[in-house]
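Give me structure tokens for this 74-residue protein.
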Amino acid sequence: MPFPESHWKQACELAPIFNELVDRVSLDPKFLQDSLSRTKKADAFTSRLLDIHSKMLEINKKEDSVVLSVIFTG
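Here you go.
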């Protein structure tokens, strides 16, 4: 069964808005950590990513700029 063209067009229209949301969340480390704190307790993968994120934030205080981006869907 082919994917409906109308759904594809809708996804293409929404993609820039979603991308902007993801970018803004990624730029707010406290919001990101707070929002995912319950997930961190239940999911080992998310827990490890947030631990890495925290360590990178500490390093970033000493360095000029560090960017870490991981997109996980599933």
